[in-house]
Design the sequence.
């Protein structure tokens, strides 16, 4: 049972435009969400996170939006740059005083077209 | 500051064998987590160790086990290997746990023949 779903395996966006990566979850207990980026032959790199008490978190070109009622989060990258081409994973957790585990989605491969 | 290192980077084993993978976290990080990445399943959480204690475990069979040493280095062991265990195994370290920013190693690519 895939509790965190990234329904788009791939996405292509023109350089300079906005990239929007989507993630849906089924477990309403999830209250903390993260995005990681992965280049080939490297481990994932943390990008941004959001707690369920917020509906938006911004860090430079990256903004994550959380819609709890729809159990949906999205990552916006503005403007998109060639170096953003990578696989993006969303992840979710139930915060439990250190006793947590992350559930990841299957990833979306983002390609930025120069 | 040195990053997370994993050894070996590549490994080929045959069914029924066992394997041990090693992970050295970033200095000062007490939490080490292990993940399995396969093309169809994405990243799946195996377990997390914090100060030598397993704090949480994913939904993997008992063939998958781990441990953490007093210097925070961690090992993961898979016994009685199956073809389906072929995957990239990633370890990640953080100061406090999986909801803190985790720093991943490059992974160990395990192929089971």
Sequence:
């Amino acid at each position: 049972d895939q509790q965190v779903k990234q329904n788009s395996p791939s996405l292509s966006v023109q350089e300079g435009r906005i990239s929007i990566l989507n993630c849906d979850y089924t477990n309403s207990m999830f209250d903390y969400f993260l995005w990681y980026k992965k280049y080939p032959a490297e481990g994932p790199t943390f990008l941004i996170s959001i707690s369920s008490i917020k509906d938006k978190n911004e860090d430079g070109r990256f903004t994550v939006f959380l819609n709890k009622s729809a159990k949906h989060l999205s990552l916006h990258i503005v403007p998109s740059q060639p170096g953003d081409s990578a696989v993006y994973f969303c992840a979710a957790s139930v915060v439990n005083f250190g006793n947590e585990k992350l559930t990841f989605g299957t990833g979306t491969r983002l390609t930025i077209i120069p | 500051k040195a990053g997370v290192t994993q050894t070996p980077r590549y490994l080929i084993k045959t069914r029924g064998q066992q394997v041990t993978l090693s992970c050295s976290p970033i200095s000062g990080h007490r939490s080490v987590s292990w993940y399995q990445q396969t093309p169809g399943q994405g990243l799946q959480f195996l377990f997390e160790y914090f100060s030598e204690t397993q704090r949480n475990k994913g939904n993997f069979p008992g063939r998958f086990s781990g441990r953490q040493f007093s210097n925070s280095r961690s090992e993961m062991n898979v016994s009685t290997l199956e073809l389906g265990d072929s995957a990239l195994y990633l370890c990640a370290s953080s100061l406090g746990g999986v909801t803190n920013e985790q720093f991943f190693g490059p992974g160990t690519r395990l192929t089971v023949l």
In short: The mean pLDDT of chain B is 94. Chain B has no helices and eleven strands.
